[in-house]
Design goal:
Number of helices: 6
Organism: Gimesia aquarii
Structural class: alpha/beta
Largest sheet: 6 strands, mixed
CATH topology: Rossmann fold
InterPro entries: AAA+_ATPase, ABC_heterocyst_DevA, ABC_transporter-like_ATP-bd, ABC_transporter-like_CS, ABC_transpr_LolD-like, MacB-like_ATP-bd, P-loop_NTPase
Number of domains: 1
GO cellular component, one term: membrane protein complex
CATH class: Alpha Beta
Bound molecules: adenosine-5'-triphosphate
EC number: 3.6.3.-
Distance between the termini: 26 Å
Strand content: 25-35%
Helix content: 25-40%
CATH superfamily: P-loop containing nucleotide triphosphate hydrolases
Number of strands: 10
CATH architecture: 3-Layer(aba) Sandwich
Keywords: ATP-binding, Hydrolase, Lipoprotein, Nucleotide-binding, Transport
Protein backbone atom coordinates (compact mmCIF):
# COMPACT_ATOMS: atom_id res chain seq x y z
CA UNK A 1 0.00 0.00 0.00
CA UNK A 2 1.29 3.47 -0.80
CA UNK A 3 2.01 5.79 2.09
CA UNK A 4 0.07 9.02 1.49
CA UNK A 5 1.16 12.25 3.15
CA UNK A 6 -0.31 12.05 6.68
CA UNK A 7 -0.97 15.78 7.15
CA UNK A 8 -1.70 18.33 4.43
CA UNK A 9 -2.93 21.81 5.31
CA UNK A 10 -3.83 24.33 2.64
CA UNK A 11 -4.95 27.93 3.30
CA UNK A 12 -6.22 26.88 6.72
CA UNK A 13 -7.80 29.67 8.81
CA UNK A 14 -9.46 29.48 12.21
CA UNK A 15 -11.30 31.94 14.48
CA UNK A 16 -12.64 31.75 18.01
CA UNK A 17 -15.92 33.47 18.90
CA UNK A 18 -18.68 34.96 16.80
CA UNK A 19 -19.80 38.38 15.61
CA UNK A 20 -17.99 41.29 17.24
CA UNK A 21 -16.17 38.93 19.55
CA UNK A 22 -14.75 36.89 16.69
CA UNK A 23 -10.98 36.71 16.73
CA UNK A 24 -8.98 35.10 13.98
CA UNK A 25 -6.22 32.88 15.38
CA UNK A 26 -4.85 31.02 12.35
CA UNK A 27 -4.15 32.67 8.99
CA UNK A 28 -3.49 30.89 5.70
CA UNK A 29 -1.66 27.90 7.17
CA UNK A 30 -0.03 25.75 4.48
CA UNK A 31 2.25 22.84 5.35
CA UNK A 32 2.52 19.09 5.24
CA UNK A 33 4.07 16.33 7.29
CA UNK A 34 5.39 13.36 5.36
CA UNK A 35 5.23 9.71 6.40
CA UNK A 36 7.73 8.93 9.17
CA UNK A 37 8.75 12.58 9.67
CA UNK A 38 9.40 14.10 13.10
CA UNK A 39 8.32 17.72 12.98
CA UNK A 40 8.31 20.24 15.81
CA UNK A 41 5.94 23.19 15.91
CA UNK A 42 7.38 26.07 17.85
CA UNK A 43 6.76 29.79 18.39
CA UNK A 44 5.75 32.30 21.06
CA UNK A 45 2.91 31.76 23.50
CA UNK A 46 -0.43 32.51 21.87
CA UNK A 47 0.85 32.04 18.31
CA UNK A 48 -1.74 29.31 17.63
CA UNK A 49 0.26 26.08 17.96
CA UNK A 50 -2.20 24.23 20.18
CA UNK A 51 -5.16 25.43 18.12
CA UNK A 52 -3.50 24.02 15.00
CA UNK A 53 -2.68 20.73 16.73
CA UNK A 54 -6.27 20.31 17.95
CA UNK A 55 -7.61 20.93 14.44
CA UNK A 56 -5.24 18.28 13.08
CA UNK A 57 -6.32 15.88 15.82
CA UNK A 58 -9.99 16.24 14.92
CA UNK A 59 -10.69 17.89 18.27
CA UNK A 60 -12.12 21.02 16.62
CA UNK A 61 -14.10 21.62 13.44
CA UNK A 62 -12.22 23.04 10.48
CA UNK A 63 -13.89 26.29 9.42
CA UNK A 64 -12.00 27.49 6.38
CA UNK A 65 -9.35 26.00 4.13
CA UNK A 66 -8.31 22.43 3.56
CA UNK A 67 -6.95 20.00 6.08
CA UNK A 68 -6.42 16.34 5.27
CA UNK A 69 -5.19 14.08 8.04
CA UNK A 70 -4.59 10.36 7.46
CA UNK A 71 -6.67 10.64 4.30
CA UNK A 72 -9.64 12.15 6.16
CA UNK A 73 -10.70 15.47 4.67
CA UNK A 74 -11.65 17.50 7.74
CA UNK A 75 -13.50 20.41 6.18
CA UNK A 76 -17.17 19.74 7.00
CA UNK A 77 -16.27 16.36 8.49
CA UNK A 78 -19.05 14.79 10.57
CA UNK A 79 -18.54 14.00 14.25
CA UNK A 80 -18.33 10.29 13.45
CA UNK A 81 -15.58 10.95 10.88
CA UNK A 82 -13.69 12.96 13.49
CA UNK A 83 -14.09 10.16 16.03
CA UNK A 84 -12.77 7.65 13.52
CA UNK A 85 -9.76 9.91 12.85
CA UNK A 86 -9.06 10.33 16.58
CA UNK A 87 -8.87 6.56 16.97
CA UNK A 88 -5.93 6.51 14.56
CA UNK A 89 -3.97 9.14 16.49
CA UNK A 90 -1.84 8.81 19.62
CA UNK A 91 -2.18 11.97 21.72
CA UNK A 92 0.37 13.03 24.33
CA UNK A 93 -0.22 16.16 26.40
CA UNK A 94 1.86 18.28 28.75
CA UNK A 95 -0.04 16.92 31.71
CA UNK A 96 0.01 13.18 31.30
CA UNK A 97 -3.76 12.97 32.01
CA UNK A 98 -3.48 9.55 33.63
CA UNK A 99 -6.37 8.49 35.81
CA UNK A 100 -5.04 8.67 39.38
CA UNK A 101 -6.98 5.69 40.74
CA UNK A 102 -5.79 3.27 38.06
CA UNK A 103 -2.39 1.58 37.87
CA UNK A 104 -0.01 2.29 35.00
CA UNK A 105 -1.12 -0.97 33.33
CA UNK A 106 -4.83 -0.17 33.78
CA UNK A 107 -4.36 3.31 32.33
CA UNK A 108 -2.84 1.79 29.20
CA UNK A 109 -5.37 -1.04 29.05
CA UNK A 110 -8.22 1.48 29.19
CA UNK A 111 -7.17 2.85 25.81
CA UNK A 112 -7.57 -0.56 24.17
CA UNK A 113 -10.77 -1.27 26.06
CA UNK A 114 -12.27 1.94 24.65
CA UNK A 115 -11.25 0.92 21.14
CA UNK A 116 -13.08 -2.36 21.72
CA UNK A 117 -11.20 -4.17 18.98
CA UNK A 118 -9.24 -6.87 20.80
CA UNK A 119 -9.88 -9.58 23.40
CA UNK A 120 -9.25 -8.95 27.09
CA UNK A 121 -6.21 -11.29 27.06
CA UNK A 122 -4.75 -9.30 24.21
CA UNK A 123 -5.50 -6.03 25.97
CA UNK A 124 -3.42 -7.15 28.95
CA UNK A 125 -0.54 -8.53 26.88
CA UNK A 126 -0.36 -5.56 24.50
CA UNK A 127 -0.44 -3.09 27.38
CA UNK A 128 2.38 -4.95 29.12
CA UNK A 129 4.40 -4.86 25.89
CA UNK A 130 3.80 -1.13 25.50
CA UNK A 131 4.95 -0.47 29.06
CA UNK A 132 8.02 -2.67 28.50
CA UNK A 133 8.81 -0.63 25.37
CA UNK A 134 9.00 2.52 27.50
CA UNK A 135 11.09 0.79 30.18
CA UNK A 136 8.38 0.45 32.81
CA UNK A 137 7.89 -3.31 33.16
CA UNK A 138 8.68 -3.02 36.85
CA UNK A 139 6.21 -0.18 37.45
CA UNK A 140 3.09 -1.63 35.88
CA UNK A 141 1.22 -2.04 39.15
CA UNK A 142 2.02 1.47 40.41
CA UNK A 143 -0.54 4.24 40.44
CA UNK A 144 0.54 7.61 38.98
CA UNK A 145 1.17 9.02 42.48
CA UNK A 146 3.89 6.38 42.92
CA UNK A 147 5.70 7.37 39.72
CA UNK A 148 8.08 10.22 38.89
CA UNK A 149 7.04 12.90 36.38
CA UNK A 150 9.18 11.27 33.69
CA UNK A 151 7.72 7.84 34.42
CA UNK A 152 4.18 9.20 34.22
CA UNK A 153 4.96 10.71 30.85
CA UNK A 154 6.35 7.32 29.76
CA UNK A 155 3.04 5.73 30.72
CA UNK A 156 1.31 8.41 28.62
CA UNK A 157 3.57 7.46 25.69
CA UNK A 158 2.76 3.75 26.17
CA UNK A 159 -0.93 4.66 26.23
CA UNK A 160 -0.58 6.71 23.05
CA UNK A 161 1.27 3.93 21.22
CA UNK A 162 -0.62 0.85 22.41
CA UNK A 163 -3.37 1.28 19.82
CA UNK A 164 -0.79 1.33 16.97
CA UNK A 165 -1.58 4.89 15.90
CA UNK A 166 -0.80 6.14 12.41
CA UNK A 167 0.19 9.57 13.73
CA UNK A 168 1.40 10.95 17.06
CA UNK A 169 0.41 14.45 18.15
CA UNK A 170 2.21 15.74 21.23
CA UNK A 171 1.61 19.07 22.98
CA UNK A 172 4.51 20.20 25.16
CA UNK A 173 5.24 16.67 26.44
CA UNK A 174 8.45 17.77 28.17
CA UNK A 175 7.33 21.09 29.64
CA UNK A 176 6.74 19.74 33.15
CA UNK A 177 9.96 17.71 33.22
CA UNK A 178 13.54 18.44 34.18
CA UNK A 179 16.05 18.57 31.37
CA UNK A 180 17.27 14.96 31.69
CA UNK A 181 13.78 13.42 31.85
CA UNK A 182 12.59 15.69 29.03
CA UNK A 183 15.36 14.55 26.77
CA UNK A 184 14.84 10.91 27.58
CA UNK A 185 11.13 11.30 26.75
CA UNK A 186 11.76 12.79 23.30
CA UNK A 187 14.58 10.30 22.63
CA UNK A 188 12.17 7.51 23.45
CA UNK A 189 9.40 8.96 21.31
CA UNK A 190 11.77 9.33 18.41
CA UNK A 191 13.03 5.75 18.78
CA UNK A 192 9.52 4.29 18.97
CA UNK A 193 8.28 6.42 16.09
CA UNK A 194 11.24 5.30 13.99
CA UNK A 195 10.75 1.64 14.79
CA UNK A 196 7.09 1.87 13.79
CA UNK A 197 7.43 4.42 10.97
CA UNK A 198 4.90 6.72 12.67
CA UNK A 199 5.14 10.48 12.01
CA UNK A 200 5.22 12.84 14.99
CA UNK A 201 4.03 16.43 15.14
CA UNK A 202 5.09 17.94 18.44
CA UNK A 203 4.35 21.38 19.83
CA UNK A 204 7.20 22.52 22.01
CA UNK A 205 8.75 25.61 23.55
CA UNK A 206 11.50 23.47 24.96
CA UNK A 207 14.77 24.60 23.41
CA UNK A 208 16.51 21.72 25.21
CA UNK A 209 15.00 19.14 22.84
CA UNK A 210 14.78 20.98 19.51
CA UNK A 211 17.79 19.16 18.07
CA UNK A 212 15.77 15.95 17.90
CA UNK A 213 13.44 17.35 15.24
CA UNK A 214 14.00 16.69 11.55
CA UNK A 215 12.09 19.83 10.71
CA UNK A 216 10.97 22.81 12.76
CA UNK A 217 7.92 24.84 11.79
CA UNK A 218 7.92 28.21 13.47
CA UNK A 219 4.67 30.06 14.06
CA UNK A 220 4.11 33.71 14.86
CA UNK A 221 0.78 35.52 15.29
CA UNK A 222 -1.17 32.65 13.75
CA UNK A 223 1.02 32.31 10.67
CA UNK A 224 3.82 30.01 9.68
CA UNK A 225 6.93 32.11 9.84
CA UNK A 226 9.52 29.57 8.89
CA UNK A 227 9.75 25.89 8.13
CA UNK A 228 13.30 24.64 8.13
CA UNK A 229 14.50 21.16 7.29
CA UNK A 230 17.29 20.09 9.58
CA UNK A 231 20.15 17.75 8.84
CA UNK A 232 19.11 14.14 9.26
CA UNK A 233 22.69 13.20 10.08
CA UNK A 234 21.77 12.87 13.74
CA UNK A 235 20.27 9.40 12.97
N1 LIG B 1 -11.20 28.34 23.55
C1 LIG B 1 -10.72 29.53 23.22
N2 LIG B 1 -11.51 30.60 23.08
C2 LIG B 1 -11.05 31.81 22.72
N3 LIG B 1 -9.73 32.06 22.47
C3 LIG B 1 -8.88 31.03 22.60
C4 LIG B 1 -9.32 29.72 22.98
N4 LIG B 1 -8.22 28.89 23.01
C5 LIG B 1 -7.17 29.67 22.67
N5 LIG B 1 -7.56 30.94 22.42
C6 LIG B 1 -6.69 32.04 22.01
O1 LIG B 1 -6.10 31.66 20.78
C7 LIG B 1 -4.76 32.13 20.69
C8 LIG B 1 -3.84 30.97 20.35
O2 LIG B 1 -3.85 30.06 21.44
P1 LIG B 1 -3.03 28.70 21.38
O3 LIG B 1 -3.26 28.00 22.67
O4 LIG B 1 -3.34 27.99 20.12
O5 LIG B 1 -1.54 29.26 21.30
P2 LIG B 1 -0.17 28.53 21.60
O6 LIG B 1 0.80 29.00 20.57
O7 LIG B 1 -0.40 27.05 21.69
O8 LIG B 1 0.20 29.12 23.02
P3 LIG B 1 1.00 28.46 24.25
O9 LIG B 1 2.38 28.22 23.74
O10 LIG B 1 0.93 29.49 25.31
O11 LIG B 1 0.26 27.19 24.60
C9 LIG B 1 -4.46 32.80 22.03
O12 LIG B 1 -4.63 34.18 21.85
C10 LIG B 1 -5.51 32.25 22.94
O13 LIG B 1 -5.83 33.18 23.95
Amino acid sequence: MSNPTPIVANSLCFSFGNGELQKQILFDICFSVEAGEIVFLTGPSGSGKTTLLTLIGGLRQVQEGELTVLEHSLHQATESELVSLRKQIGFIFQQHNLLPFLTAAQNVELMLEMQGLVSSNEIVSRSAEALAAVGLSDRMRHEPSGLSGGQRQRVAIARALVGNPSLILADEPTAALDSKSGRSIVDLLKKLARERGVPILMVTHDSRVLDIAERIIEMEDGRIKDSSALSKASE
